[in-house]
Amino acid sequence: MEQREKNRxxxxxxLVIRLNTREEVNKISIVIPDNDQLRPYWGPAIEEFxxxxxxxxxxxxxxxxxxxxxxxxxxxxxxVDYRYVYQRGIPVVRRLSGGGAVFHGPGNLNFxxxxxxxxxxxxxFRKYTxxxxxxxxxxxxxxxxxxxxxxRINGLKVSGNAEHxxxxxxxHHGTLLYNADLNNLDASIxxxxxxxxxxxxxxxxxxxxxxxxFLSDAPGFxxxxxxxxxxxxxxxxxxxxxxxxxxxxxxIHRLVDEKYSRWDWNYGxxxxxxxxxxxxxxxxxxxxxxGVSKGxxxxxxxxxxxxxxxxxxxxxxxxxxxxxxxxILSLLTEHGLNEKDxxxxxxxxxxxxx
Length: 354
Hints:
About 35% of the residues lie in helices and about 25% in strands. The protein is α+β, with helices and mostly antiparallel strands and about 350 residues long. It folds into two domains: about 5-265, Bira Bifunctional Protein, Domain 2 (BirA Bifunctional Protein, domain 2), CATH 3.30.930.10; about 275-354, CO dehydrogenase flavoprotein, C-terminal domain (Enolase-like, domain 1). The strands form three sheets. An eight-stranded mixed β-sheet has the order 7-8-9-10-6-2-1-12, with helices on both faces. A four-stranded antiparallel β-sheet has the order 11-13-14-15. Strand 13 (about 275-280) and strand 14 form a beta hairpin. The chain is elongated.
């Protein structure tokens, strides 16, 4: 680390000491996940493990590979540009908490607070965003709690937040856009309007920005993360750190395998919905209507012409299938999808089903 960067960290540490004169209690531990534990499905699994399986209070700073993370009560397909994420292999992950969809990836720092509280006073977005807001203010930024549980700078969203209560504990977590790829974020989140109809929670779209864009001498991502870690230790009066044990990792791995990487959780947990799609082919136009429950197609109707498929028979066989590309492609093949048509499943035909 260059001397300029060291000076910045030292300065921030001194600010924290002045802000916090209380005696250290070592009650809250800073969790430090290893890099190989930060694949897209692992972050939410670690959070659930810390919340439900370990005693104590924890703070975790983490990031993951590109993924779209949807709220517990959202229709996952309705919150993403499915053609974009499917073609690029970007996972869609459902988290424990409610709220709207967010994008995770390099340059986006996630913070998780798992703290105890009194019944009836656990949900408090202002309380749990204040440490991060105070940190940004120490960097000279006019951060504010605004909008739908957001942290904003000059009206632009830099952090979305959500909470989940478990017994006398609360999981509060948020994103913190630092130097993220905002083009990838914009392209991944948001389905075409009018295609999905459901009672799920809808994301509130906001203009976003990176924290680094407001800093004249912005540190690198890792230094920024370390600075926030130092600040939070001072804010909460702790220097205790916790590294996941082998048995912890084994339990988290089971959560990933049995829940967070499974289609049944990430997509099938969505509320019931109806879907309307169209495809414009050289041979003719097609329109599709689906009724879906727990991710499984319960009703289907297709009208129009084009391709080698008997669409009336195909619509009947769609019933009972998962609303999932691999299942639909397999069924199309069974119905005689020819070589020309098979090349269009990622192009002209995919919009018909998603």
